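Most newcomers find our protein records easier to grasp once they have seen one. The structure tokens are whole numbers drawn from a learned vocabulary of backbone shapes. The record below serves as our worked example for the rest of this section.
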Amino acid sequence: MNNEEKKKKIKRIATLFIALYLISFFAINWNDVSWIFNYKAVGGLIDDFFTPYQNTQASRATEPQTQVKFAYSNKNNILEIPKIGISVPIIFSQSAEQNFLLKDLDKGVVYYPGSVLPGQAGQIVILGHSAPPNWPKIKHDWVFSELDSLTSGDQIIVYINYKKYTYTVKQKNILKKGQDITPLNLKQDGNYLALVSCWPPGKDLQRITVQAEVD
């Protein structure tokens, strides 16, 4: 074997070693470095992710409702969507600033700051990430990926203050970026829920919103 062949062999071995090292490193430290590959962190896609929610009027309570059905539960601050197998923590973000919301979305779905409570008249807005097919279930990037599967009559369950509130889906819409969420106006004193995510899953092109009314 001449010197040139030896150099090529050494180079191949070195390349293989580096590749194996990188694979092992990312496998062991995936939770800490996964943001590098997060489609929401690339190309400035996050810049206007939250703009549809700033003017939703989602959060202004009027008079408390007096006839909202609920059942006591040992669960607290959890959102469940039986049809798509979701049970996820509800995070009450302390600020509507993007940095705070992004950190909280890693922990679950976000109860948009200022939204009314289930016992008050008005609209609740809950935000969640979505991800493309086969995206690894890291943190909660994937949690609202199947919102499009929901149809009128499906149930959404919210556990807050150890009380269980059941909402029934009324409508589903695809919104343009920056377009306000129009509250349902079925009853003046009603309590409504809007689930919101990017659409299509994994792409910051539009928004999907699923709106529901408390039973």
